[in-house]
Design brief:
- By secondary structure, this protein is mainly beta.
- Helix content is about 15%, strand content about 40%.
- The strands form two sheets. Strands 1-3-2 form a three-stranded mixed sheet, covered by helices on one side.
- It starts with a helix and ends with a strand.
Amino acid sequence: KSGLAALRRAARSAGADMALFGHTHRPVCLQEDGLLLLNPGSAGCPPRLTWARLEIGEEGGVSCRILDL
């Protein structure tokens, strides 16, 4: 609820490579300086129904995509 800047700071402070969050119903899929931020959006709150795909490669790389239902 404090915004993406606060989430970035908290994730970096914790040494995280990714921060998964939700409850805002706004889809986010960003990679910035080695930090992945992912919010799948909302599967039940129109007007845009979304979900997220998080892919973790065998080498440890990660990627995400927001997809519409």
